[in-house]
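The passage that follows is intended for readers who have already worked through the single-chain material. We present the inputs for a multi-component assembly, then the predicted structure in tokenized form, and finally a short commentary. You are encouraged to pause after the input and sketch how you expect the pieces to fit together before reading on.
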Amino acid sequence: MKAKTKTANKILLLGFPGNGLIGTFTVSYLISHLQMRLIGDINHPDMTPTLFVENGEILSPIRIYQKDNLYAIISDVPIFPEVAHEFVSSIAEFCQKNHIKKVIVPSGVDTQSTDSKDTKTYGLATHPSFEKLMYDNDLPKFIAGSIIGTDATVITVFRNYRIPLLMLYTSCHSFFPDPQASIFAITSLAKVLKIQVDTKDIQKRVDYLRIQHRSLMQETLDAIQQQEKQLPSKVPPIYR
Amino acid sequence: MIKRLDYNSIFQLGDDLEQKILSPLSCIKEHESKWVLEFDLPLVDKKDINVFVDSDQTIIVEAKLRESYCDEHQKSYQYEYFKKSLSMPKNVDSDNISAKFADGRLVITIPKTLQGKKIRIED
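Having made your guess, compare it with the prediction:
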């Protein structure tokens, strides 16, 4: 597969486990298909010490990749609320240090529809520079809803650091790994990045990915439940 | 400590390597008039799924995989079935449970029964 980044500014893709594992599937697929280079990892003393071994190589669960002007940070473990703010702040500092001007985060949003034909990717931007990008790529705006957990931390921290952020919310099944919806997310992200990505490989492996990622999905749901416990029982309506 | 990627899945999800059984993910949602129970059953055909309710009001889902599933990290780990048992919610109409299967997801709808006595609204 040939892929070429046309964007001039440095961009960071951030993928971590959440609804339908959309962020994890999408960013890891792009890392693999763009053949991005591993340049570092992120550790935190409050996170359970974990390492993965892949073909004899020891890998940290949160890794940083790069290819030309494109950076990617992928987490293969859920981000628990105790560390979320510090974790995202360290990424924002990494962006400042490396002159990264834009951050894009693919994520999932729960949908009532079970029909994959209804799958859509919505954009939620913290900066007007992304508005045209959304319009040019037919990405409808995320108009209303409540955002909790790590996604909310990501938006808050990047706003505070004044680093433009685009959340790409793809409708998915919240409780099960949803690689099928991730294919839609990959296509939407590829359009935004102006790159070509062939999704045949992930299409072939959809069923296997659903089985393989059951444990990560379960751990992610546990983390989300932990975050929900800290919220008020009902999100108050916002009047403007 | 180096932890294997698949270590958790074996123990947390209750997979049974000896019997070649995988424990599927499931979720339950409560609605006004019903409970909706969902099971994620990839690599399964509709004809190979069995759903039972036993005398203890436990719902049991069994399904045969269309091909054996090999663990990516441990090739000798082979699975051929999904199986999971869950307790049914209380006050349900067991005679009118229905199920649908599409895109590898089994959706079981369990209607609620109205309990208690009716209170008359005074004039």
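Commentary: Residues 7-12 of chain B form the longest helix (6 residues). Strands of chain B lie at 21-22, 26-30, 34-40, 44-53, 58-70, 78-87, 98-102, 105-111. How closely did your sketch match?
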